[in-house]
Amino acid sequence: MREIHVDEIRDNVAQICIDAAYSLSEDVLAAFDRAIEEETSPSAKEILELLKENARVARVEHIPICQDTGIGVFFVEVGQDLRIKNGFLSDAINDGVRKGYRDGHLRKSVVDPLTRRNTGDNTPAIIYTEVVPGDKLRISFMPKGAGSENMSAIRMLRPTEGIEGIKAFVLDCVRRAGANPCPPVVVGVGIGGDFEKSALLAKKALLRNVGSPHPKLELASLEMDLLKAVNKTGIGPEGLGGKMTAMAVHVESFPCHIASLPVAVNINCHAARHKTIVL
Amino acid sequence: MTEPIKLQPPLTDEVVEKLKTGDRVEITGVIYTARDMAHKKMVDGHQKGEPLPFDPEGQIIYYTGPTPAAPGRVIGAAGPTTSYRMDRYTPCLLELGIKGMIGKGPRGPEVKEAIKMHKSVYFAAIGGAGALISKTIKKAEVIAYPDLGAEAVMRLEVENFPAIVVNDIHGGDLYVAGRAEYGAEEASEDSC
């Protein structure tokens, strides 16, 4: 059985926390370029250029892209033939967050929900773990800012409302969010499962490379339809008017009960930071 | 594109009266940071008869919680946070003399009314451009509530800090105007 030491996990997690905060990945930069090309408002184009410049300055001068370096959200796939040595997986991840947020001079934004006392080191992270075939450890990380997270919504639709009901709900969420989640956004939509499964799917949808279509044709086509509709709202970059309200809509689905049609929407800001490593 | 209007706090009625929705401005001088918990503390304190941590007359509040300054740096990333969360405290602060606010996202009806009544102005900075904006900040010092960490009140010295007028004293709202101009549907002012 393959073994991995918790220190290796900790150090790699620390590194992706820092990398994500300072360096936008290629898929997001490419989405900026597409947005600049498609935008029709001159002042909105100018804003999109500024966002590109911000990403460049962040990388070159080593300043975080955004001051909201988020709460850490991790999706972890553990190969069932892998043994974690000298400690627990979740402790190793939290140790990595603690180290990354300290050494990377990132903002500690995690508090007790009632006392509002800051935990001081951005832990605990939110960790979803899945056991999969193989002997690898795949860690996907998203520092999730609250400006976009606060615009999330979930609704239990009637099954007969169907695709039209889903579209209406997604559009309603984007319209109500307006300028708040820092458009051009990425819209994550989770359809089906149950209450919490739909929310988890919506969040997981944001981990995909921005603008990569869903492999299932009917979902890819729904993504296209939703993106077109979202980009007719006029909200535009920073909510100041324009075409590019969203860079992408990502949909994930899961079978659900005959009486249910859960739909969840989770929005990501234009600084759609995400990193994945395989150990 | 017209040249940005240069502003230097403290702002006066005369300066604020001239600002219109959509105007680009560049702020040079001192501004103060405050966000959720600092707003609550300032307003709760005021109701108990305590003074604000700084003289509010004509001053600008910037809704931000920067990342810690790396060694040799003045400040970390320092972009705007979402403004509606401060709405419940804003009318009181405008009454006490605050003239300007910098944030992102639309304000509620009470805030828009208070802006008209007290002759103040709400600016948007570019949300998510925290690296770029930080370069206009030349000095930063915590002046109140250090226990709040990133949410402490800071006195910032800025040079040509870029912002755009969203709400002016004439009732203009750039978010409503922008969406109406480019949207196929009717503009909505709601926020989650």
What name goes with the CATH superfamily of chain B?
Fe-S hydro-lyase, tartrate dehydratase beta-type, catalytic domain
Total domain count of chain B: 1
Kindly report the spatial arrangement of strands forming the biggest sheet of chain A.
4-2-5-10
The low-confidence runs of chain A, each spanning 5 or more residues with pLDDT under 50, are none
Q: Tell me, briefly, the overall form of chain A.
A: globular
- What is the number of beta strands of chain A? 10
CATH third-level topology of chain B? fumarase
What characterizes the major β-sheet of chain A?
4 strands, mixed
Summed up, the helix count of chain B is 6
Summarize the main sheet of chain B: 5 strands, mixed, barrel
Topology of this protein?
The complex is a heterodimer of chains A (279) and B (192).
Chain A: E1 2-5, H1 6-22, H2 26-38, H3 42-61, E2 71-79, E3 82-85, H4 89-103, E4 126-132, E5 137-144, H5 146-149, E6 153-157, H6 162-177, E7 185-192, H7 195-205, H8 217-230, E8 246-254, E9 261-268, E10 275-278
Parallel strand pairs in A: 1-3, 2-4, 7-8
Antiparallel strand pairs in A: 2-5, 5-10, 6-9, 7-9
Helix pairs in contact in A: 1-4, 2-3
Chain B: E1 5-7, H1 13-18, E2 24-33, H2 36-47, E3 60-62, H3 90-95, E4 100-103, H4 109-117, E5 121-124, H5 130-134, E6 137-144, E7 153-167, H6 174-182
Parallel strand pairs in B: 1-2, 2-3, 3-4, 4-5
Antiparallel strand pairs in B: 2-7, 5-7, 6-7
